[in-house]
Amino acid sequence: MRTRAAVLREMGAPAPYAESQPLEIVELELDPPGPGEVLIKVGAAGLCHSDLSVINGSRPRVMPMALGHEAAGEVVEVGPGVESLAVGDHAVLAFVPACGACGPCRSGRAALCEPGAAANAKGTLLSGEIRLHDDSGQPIYHHLGVSAFSDHIVVSERSAVKVSPQLPWETAALFGCAVLTGVGAAIRSAGVRPGDSVAVFGLGGVGLAALMGAVLAGAGTVIGSDPIAEKLELARSLGATGTVAAGPDAVEQVREMTGGGADIVIETVGSAAVLAEAYAATGRGGTTVTVGLPDPAQQLEIPAVSLVAEERTLKGSYLGSCVPALDIPRFIELFQGGRLPVDTLLTGTLALEDVNEAFDRLASGQAARQAILF
Question: Where in the chain does DSSP place strands (E)?
């Protein structure tokens, strides 16, 4: 069948993207789903910094690639052997397909699925197949097994989680990345406990979700830091007990507000410099969690002795250390129960044709989460 998709042919286009137009809206040929795969009619797809990092070249991927990894849609066809989904089901897409059989999957660490990581690096589905082609027959690679900036997609059954049909598409989509990554970072990776002091550096969609997770877990002090005043105001409305404008004084302010450093600091910016600030703002015996994806060339310098002398922990978090099949339904229940206000993350919606301009808004920090509606 034919599908319209946003395709990136070369990385590193200069901003503003409204002028350079790195994403081209084209019609592609989409093969039918193979064994263990499903065809999804996309309802909405969120724009994330992980997409932006491919566009600007800081997260190199094979080209050409149909971008997008945070989405929700309706199952319209299933391939042979599919058991967890049926035609008509609503599903949220997760950007790491969990095979369920490798060592990490068997130990409950689906975010580290080895076949899933290998497929994502190659730009294929979990099966190793590529289902998108242009009119010349050239393969168009899949972004993180999803390629959500397209009105129809074929994905592995292992990338899709059945969800309630009551959720609006633009809200449901956010659970696949922003919520899993952010809320998971606070609850699963950091293990925030009641009474903990928590600071979040960077208040985009993931950072605000991490802040929500800290509030949900009962943190006593919750501080948000960002250069954008509107995001600081939004953080306060979501339960932050204090906010700090990003800048040279941010570390000292967080340390003063937490009596010497926060128990947990979560960094979501994707910058080694900001991660160093987050580590410096963490107290003795505390944990620094990073979910950002900096350019591979960036290096982190910290006082090595502090890890031992202050019993500090520096921890990475991918997909919020979540198991999508378990945590997406759990987080949706919390949202429906009024305990996780995910819909407040959405800055606005747009048409597929406006995707380049939307990435300018994301790059400038003016938008937390934007969603393409199909």
Answer: 2-8, 23-30, 37-47, 65-66, 70-78, 90-93, 132-133, 141-142, 152-156, 160-163, 197-201, 221-226, 242-245, 262-267, 282-290, 313-316, 346-350, 369-373
